[in-house]
Design brief:
196 residues
Length: 196
């Protein structure tokens, strides 16, 4: 690692930390993602050049790719996870993390160029800055971003329809004693009340 590269890398750590935490969904996973990204940047220093755009853009792209790789690893690990072991790791407070992972899985449907454009746009870069980094005209960036957002909306809609169809095929079972009153008395459909 050159001293100049290391110094410039340290300047971008606060921005990169915020981006990693947003992707990961919490501070601990964000720090892990940040460390993985910095390690990747240090081992691939020779691959960056100013011709690719700013160092910040390159680092956020590396961070995004690290996140996507982590989602892929988790997906593969989940495929090997046995059905006999109950999964109690997902709590109500982790809905945001689940949503981010679902988004990352949805992003995998997009071509690489559109994923990179979305990653750069998510960091707050302007169309002109993204175009300069990717050596593409501003109009191409705008239309690619529009197509990517449209495709993501279609993917979400297809998943929602699929989950609605599964729910319609599997209605909840009939529970005769499901009406509970505040007094603790359960009323069954025949009108008889039983203390709870």
């Amino acid at each position: 690692m050159t001293t100049e590269f290391g110094g410039r890398l340290v300047e971008h750590l606060p921005t990169l930390r915020v981006y990693a935490r947003r992707l990961a969904g919490n501070a601990a996973d964000g720090e892990d993602l940040l460390h993985d990204t910095v390690l990747r940047a240090l081992t691939r220093e020779e691959r960056w050049s100013p011709a690719f755009g700013s160092l910040r853009q390159w680092l956020t792209t590396l961070c995004f790719h690290q996140f996507i790789d982590g989602v892929r690893r988790a997906k593969r690990a989940k495929a090997y996870h046995t059905a006999d072991v109950p999964d109690t790791s997902v709590e109500a407070a982790q809905d945001g993390i689940v949503a981010l992972r679902e988004l990352a899985e949805q992003l995998l449907v997009l071509p690489e160029q559109q994923r990179r454009i979305i990653a750069l746009a998510a960091t707050g870069e302007t169309y002109d800055a993204i175009g300069k980094a990717m050596k593409l005209p501003r109009g191409t960036i705008a239309s690619s971003l529009h197509r990517a957002r449209k495709e993501l909306a279609h993917v979400r809609m297809r998943r929602r329809r699929s989950s609605d169809a599964v729910a319609a095929d599997n209605p909840p079972s009939f529970r005769p004693f499901h009406h509970v009153r505040r007094s603790g008395v359960v009323a069954d459909p025949s009108g008889h009340a039983e203390p709870r």
